[in-house]
Write a structure and sequence with these properties.
Largest sheet: 7 strands, antiparallel
Number of domains: 2
Pfam families: AAA_21
Strand content: 15-25%
Structural class: alpha+beta
Organism: Pseudomonas congelans
Number of strands: 18
Protein name: ATPase AAA-type core domain-containing protein
Strand order of the largest sheet: 2-1-6-7-8-9-10
Oligomer: single chain
InterPro entries: ATPase_AAA_core, P-loop_NTPase
GO molecular function, one term: ATP binding
Number of helices: 14
Helix content: 25-40%
Length: about 475
């Protein structure tokens, strides 16, 4: 399936405009690491920095537009994570989600008495009571940063932010701030961090992050770090099946942005799904729901006189316009669409938003309900500078092994997870395994040469043996 350039790529004028903007605003993730999070016990790292490999460098992202490219990082725009069920693919993505959510919400969350949303490895006694670690390297406006924190179920034990200023002859680390709960003074602020740091540190609870607190208190220098995570990251870790929720999601992306909707619909048309457009209308709640709302408002007004209510309880309802007889469009309710169409409609909004504005899109099970060729085209959008002027990055898990032989991904873009004998998740790239460039990656993976596949042990037991073992276990 070949998608037309019109609609899927930005118009030439917008493309040039976006590139000029990116000269000043470069934002991308270099790596993320975590330890003691759910099935991850030992420290595991996901790197998006390109590995020196033989072959084409086409499609790699540059972290800097300066003339001296020796100071730039080449990063991959797409990373795919493979592994058996329950091996920890989703855990890696959820650890990254935990990291981003803590930055966004820890300061305006619960009180210090309620601790932290601690999620340790539970299969040994030591890990249950040890700190969890989360850290990342990223680039903003050509400057590399390293940020991270550790915590347990009660408090944040440490937090740090370093920068590696551009233009220096060597990679010199500049400490912006460091926090250690075991230290009596607790906070250290570097000379390069301006602002009302001491006052904000006193407002920071022991179970929240200073970075989150700084953003809540309008710290100009740290707010751009906060914004990178709070605005630049989008997660799609669960597929929504409720039609009303899907309609609201679609309206959020396509309701007011006609250009964005047009790109998405062009993609749908190129995928030969028979969809021409989408339209939205307001839907009032039913009579029973209206009576419940009125009763609820009366109760609250009686006890809380200053409580404010929404002006309207109308929701946005999406209908899909299909091509029909005589080239007419016919609106079809969302409930009659297939699960694959719904899945594609849900993901296209985040995809085209990231392609235009930059940032990182995290998707669990990209292949769910989507045809492999549709998934491949989504990957191509992120891999081409023309369709990805914002230098967006896509990180996803999948079981679609066709991607491995499609030529879409380099070896450093293919990652695997598997569990060791203790139930702990290990993460590693295909580029760490010695193979030939012309090897069939899909065949090698299915045959178990790279690990990260289910091991049924059927060489030892046939199905009759398994059936008899099951019966013995039931006794």
């Amino acid at each position: 399936m070949r998608l037309p350039e019109v609609g899927c790529s930005l118009p030439r004028r917008l493309f040039v405009k976006k590139i000029q903007k990116m000269l000043l605003e470069v934002k991308m993730l270099l790596r993320f690491g975590t330890s003691n999070h759910l099935s991850v016990r030992e420290y595991q790292e996901l790197s998006l920095v390109a590995t020196p490999l033989k072959g084409s460098l086409e499609g790699l992202l540059q972290s800097s537009d300066t003339a001296d490219q020796s100071k730039a990082f080449s990063t991959v725009p797409v990373v795919a994570i493979y592994g058996a069920n329950a091996a920890g693919k989703s855990t890696i993505l959820r650890a990254l989600e935990f990291f981003v959510t803590a930055i966004k919400e820890s300061q305006n969350g619960s009180s210090s008495r309620q601790g932290t949303p601690y999620q340790p490895f539970l299969l040994d006694e030591n890990s249950r009571n040890s700190v969890s670690r989360y850290d990342a390297d990223f680039v903003i406006d050509g400057i590399r940063y390293h940020y991270g924190f550790t915590l347990d179920g009660k408090i944040v034990h440490s937090e740090w932010l370093f920068s590696f200023p551009a233009g220096s002859q060597r990679q010199v680390r500049s400490i912006l701030f460091h926090r250690d709960a075991a230290d009596e003074s607790s906070f250290y602020f570097g000379k390069s961090l301006k602002g009302d740091n001491k006052r904000i540190s006193k407002l920071t609870r022991n179970n929240s992050l200073f970075l989150s607190s700084a953003a809540q208190n309008a710290h100009s220098q740290l707010s751009k770090i906060y914004d990178y995570f709070s605005i630049g990251f989008s997660q799609r870790l669960e597929t929504v099946s409720d039609n009303a929720s899907i309609s609201e999601q679609m309206f959020a992306y396509f309701g007011a942005d006609k250009a964005q909707r047009k790109r998405a619909m062009n993609f749908m048309q190129a995928a030969d799904i028979g969809i021409a457009d989408v339209e939205f209308s307001k839907k009032a709640p039913g009579k029973k729901t209206q009576l419940l709302i009125q009763e609820f408002e009366n109760i609250f007004t009686k006890h809380f006189s200053d409580f404010s209510f929404p002006e309207s309880y109308e929701t946005n309802e999406a209908k899909i316009l299909h091509y029909g007889e005589y080239a007419k469009y016919y609106p079809i309710a969302l409930e009659y669409e297939s699960s694959g169409t719904k899945a594609l409609l849900q993901i296209l909004g985040p995809v085209f938003t990231k392609l235009e504005n930059g940032g990182t899109l995290i998707v669990d099970e990209l292949n769910i309900a989507l045809h492999p060729l549709v998934s491949h085209e989504l990957i191509k959008l992120f891999s081409s500078p023309e369709t990805n002027p914002g230098r967006a990055q896509l990180i996803f898990t999948t079981h679609d092994t066709n991607i491995l032989t499609s030529g879409l991904l380099r070896r450093d873009q293919i990652w695997f997870v598997e569990k060791d004998g203790t139930g702990s998740t290990c993460l590693y790239p295909l580029s760490s395994i010695k193979i030939r460039q012309n090897d069939n990656f899909e065949k090698g993976y299915i045959e178990g040469r790279f690990g990260a596949i289910p091991m049924f042990g059927l060489n030892k037991y046939n199905y009759k043996n398994l059936d008899s073992l099951s019966k013995e276990g039931d006794k």
